[in-house]
Amino acid sequence: MPKIDAPTVAEHRAQVQARLIDAAESILREGPSQPLTAAAVSAQAGIARNSIYRYVDSVDDLRELVVRRYLPDWLEAVDAEMAEAVSPGDQIVTWVEANLQQAADTGHGWLMGMAQSMPSNPSIDTTIEQAHGVMRESIANAWRELLGHDEVKTQVAAALTSGLLNAGFRELAADLPAEVVISMARSATVGLVSSLVD
């Protein structure tokens, strides 16, 4: 049995897997110039190359684990912020602001760029689509309540809000100051809400 550096085998396994995910994330954050390979991960993590496969089935599994590391916390953080908003209009503004703050904190650009550049993987594709579905539904629900359950207006308003958010994501990815992007996006969302509510 291999030597372990934790009280139990399960804890040792979790620690080593966390090191592998850390190493994969570090490499992926460097962008396309540094390909994610078993050799690169093993060198970064300080683990023998053939030992990696005791903890993951493939390097693509590490990509998926990096994405999964961020999505649940991201969604929970946005939900928590929205739960504190006192009105549907405030929820919409909070949705944009909280998503941009999460993007600034995690580096949305590298994360989404990595996910989009991956070979098609049904598991990770499903994970990302489910996360986006949750985000779309939360903003649609706020608009639906604000617009008196008019489904056509709800769809248009939610799409406009998503467009504003995506523009903010692009500006953050271009390394513009997060405080400026978030502040201006907040103001634009306030204006959007005000202009669309009778």
List keywords for this structure.
198 residues; single chain; 76% helix; Tetracycline Repressor, domain 2; 2 domains; mainly alpha; elongated
Task: Give the arrangement of secondary structure elements.
Elements lengths: L8 H21 L8 H8 L13 H26 L3 H19 L1 H10 L4 H25 L4 H23 L4 H19 L2
Helix pairs in contact: 1-2, 1-3, 3-4, 3-6, 4-6, 4-7, 4-8, 6-7, 7-8
Descriptive account of the structure:
The structure is a single chain. With 198 residues, this protein is an all-alpha fold. It folds into two domains: 9-56; 67-196, Tetracycline Repressor, domain 2 (Orthogonal Bundle). The protein is 76% helix and 0% strand. It has eight helices and no strands. It has helices at 9-29, 38-45, 59-84, 88-106, 108-117, 122-146, 151-173, 178-196. Helix 3 runs parallel beside helix 6 and helix 7 runs antiparallel to helix 8.
